[in-house]
């Protein structure tokens, strides 16, 4: 089988290539040059040149053809511009999820297929399996990686059946220490290389500095909301339907109606996210203050003190139907149906017990326990056992 490997210059993709070679596949290694702006990377860092050199040395060591493909314009258009736009709206995007959906498993995969590839392989800690349904159709399953500390299935939550049918994740059965051990045994230059940090398309980067390239700083107020605010003591209404209850549980609190206290200044609400406590410059509190809401129109950040602040927690989240994606289309819920799942809305978050509900107007995820810092723009993903079955953008 002919396989194109996305060789990134890291240890994971290096061992991916080696394992496929050992299985007897015909390999071609492609390195993606992503969008890069030296003005926002950290000093003396030029990650793509170093990474491409490492990828080249791995390809030479394994004796496989190697090419660099320039995808910088595509990244700028589909990922970078999207990030700027989302932050400006007061949302919290996940570029890694978009990177996989829009680039690695779309344009990159199409490029690989144009080279005659049967499959595309990446160094993700995830697994793909398949079964045949009663109609003889092959159903592909996106499974969590065996290494619980490195499972990256969440980042792949927007992939579809066609993409999964062409994807290989050889290291999904391994742990990170096992991957490094294999790399050392065969003498790969990437064996001890540290994992990449920062955004998927730039490498090491200062996020606020990155955002300031297009989003103009503007001074605004930081307003503290107190735990005894009347906002948190309102009686829960009697609901006429489950949908009405979920709308109530997932809705945003309007802090503009609260009696808050101005306790500081910030340089732009668009540079912050829900649940953030660092970088606010707030003192004089027993516990840290966390951002619970942002008024983008008036450039106001609302904060509350402590992890247990009531405005920081919600029992449900809402997803617009147009932002809903099922990896397993055969499991898609019909109007009025529900399903018990395990769910998360951040990478590395422990999976939480939840129930998903489909209604004509929207889709909801209701958690058994209240969840901290649910932010618009994040991707929620849900699982049955270790299989990721669907995802959506939180509204």
Automatic annotation (TrEMBL):
CDD domains reported for this sequence: MnmA_TRMU-like
Residue ranges occupied by any tRNA-specific 2-thiouridylase MnmA-like C-terminal domain in the UniProt entry: 320-394
Binding annotation for ATP: 6-13, 32, 123
Taxonomic superkingdom: Bacteria
Gene Ontology BP terms: tRNA wobble position uridine thiolation
Chain segments carrying region Interaction with target base in tRNA: 94-96
Chain spans, region Interaction with tRNA: 150-152, 346-347
Subcellular location: Cytoplasm
Transmembrane annotation, as ranges: none
Keyword set, alphabetical order: ATP-binding, Cytoplasm, Disulfide bond, Nucleotide-binding, RNA-binding, Transferase, tRNA processing, tRNA-binding
This enzyme's EC code(s): 2.8.1.13
Active site, per annotation: 99, 200
Record domain tRNA-specific 2-thiouridylase MnmA-like central: where: 257-305
Major localization class: cytoplasm
GO cellular component: cytoplasm
One term of GO molecular function: tRNA binding
Top EC group: transferase
Catalytic reaction equation(s): S-sulfanyl-L-cysteinyl-[protein] + uridine(34) in tRNA + AH2 + ATP = 2-thiouridine(34) in tRNA + L-cysteinyl-[protein] + A + AMP + diphosphate + H(+)
Interaction with tRNA (site feature) positions: 124, 378
Role of this protein: Catalyzes the 2-thiolation of uridine at the wobble position (U34) of tRNA, leading to the formation of s(2)U34.
Listed NCBIfam families: PRK00143.1 (NF001138), trmU (TIGR00420)
Family: Belongs to the MnmA/TRMU family.
Name used for this protein in its record: tRNA-specific 2-thiouridylase MnmA
Organism for this UniProt entry: Chryseobacterium aquaticum
């Amino acid at each position: 089988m002919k396989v194109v490997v996305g060789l990134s210059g890291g240890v994971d993709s290096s061992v991916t290539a080696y394992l496929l070679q050992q299985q007897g596949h015909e390999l071609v290694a492609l390195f993606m040059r992503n969008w890069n702006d030296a003005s926002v990377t950290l000093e003396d860092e030029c990650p793509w040149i170093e990474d491409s050199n490492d990828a080249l040395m791995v390809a030479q060591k394994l004796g496989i053809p190697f090419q660099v493909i320039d995808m910088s314009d595509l990244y700028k258009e589909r990922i970078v511009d999207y990030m700027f736009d989302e932050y400006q709206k007061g949302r919290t995007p996940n570029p890694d999820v978009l990177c996989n959906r829009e680039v690695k498993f779309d344009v990159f995969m199409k490029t690989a297929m144009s080279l005659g590839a049967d499959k595309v392989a990446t160094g993700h800690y995830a697994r793909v399996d398949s079964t045949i349904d009663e109609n003889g159709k092959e159903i592909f399953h996106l499974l969590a990686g065996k290494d619980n500390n490195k499972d990256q299935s969440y980042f792949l939550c927007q992939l579809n059946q066609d993409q999964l049918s062409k994807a290989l994740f050889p290291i999904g059965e391994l742990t990170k220490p096992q991957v490094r051990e294999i790399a050392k045994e065969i003498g790969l230059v990437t064996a001890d290389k540290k994992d990449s940090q920062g955004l998927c398309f730039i490498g090491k980067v200062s996020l606020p500095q990155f955002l300031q390239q297009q989003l103009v700083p503007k001074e605004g107020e930081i307003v503290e909301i107190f735990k005894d605010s009347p906002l948190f003591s309102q009686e829960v209404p009697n609901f006429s339907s489950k949908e009405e209850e979920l709308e109530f549980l997932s809705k945003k609190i309007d802090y503009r109606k609260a009696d808050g206290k101005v306790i500081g200044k910030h340089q732009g609400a668009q540079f912050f996210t829900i649940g953030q406590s660092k970088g606010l410059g707030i003192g004089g509190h027993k516990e840290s203050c966390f951002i619970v809401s942002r008024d983008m129109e008036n450039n106001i950040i609302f904060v509350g003190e402590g992890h247990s602040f009531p405005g920081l927690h919600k029992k449900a989240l809402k997803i617009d139907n147009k932002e809903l994606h099922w990896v397993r289309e055969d499991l898609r819920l019909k109007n009025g149906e529900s399903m018990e799942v395990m769910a998360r809305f951040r990478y590395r978050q422990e999976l939480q017990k939840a129930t998903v509900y489909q209604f004509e107007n929207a889709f909801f995820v209701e958690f058994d326990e209240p969840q901290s810092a649910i932010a618009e723009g994040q991707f929620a993903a849900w699982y049955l056992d270790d299989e990721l079955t669907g995802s959506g953008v939180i509204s």
